[in-house]
């Protein structure tokens, strides 16, 4: 298991390793919540930022995993995630439906 240092902030123009939106149980174990997790390079190490986005059931989109590998900024990855949430991927049942 790889451990990362934590950080309390990320900057929109900072290069990112990746952005993830994942559902986990809340700290009190009473609900499932969606968390934004962003990995950035700080010095020679990877730092992890987490933000609670609210109840997981309010999100219709699937959980997101957007790799960047230091090509995209935090702001660009957040834009990609916002777009993915607004326009979820196609439903395979619609594509395979026959007339």
List the helices and strands and how they pair.
Elements: E1 5-6, E2 16-25, E3 32-42, E4 45-55, E5 64-67, H1 74-86, H2 92-96
Commentary on this structure:
The chain has 99 residues and is of the alpha+beta class. It has one domain (5-96). The chain has two helices and five strands; from the N terminus they run βββββαα. It has a five-stranded mixed β-sheet, with helices on one face. Strand 2 and strand 3 (32-42) form a beta hairpin. It starts with a strand and ends with a helix.
Explain briefly what this protein structure is:
By secondary structure, the protein is α+β, with helices and mostly antiparallel strands. The chain has helices at 74-86, 92-96; strands at 5-6, 16-25, 32-42, 45-55, 64-67.
List keywords for this structure.
99 residues; alpha+beta; five-stranded mixed β-sheet; 5 strands; globular
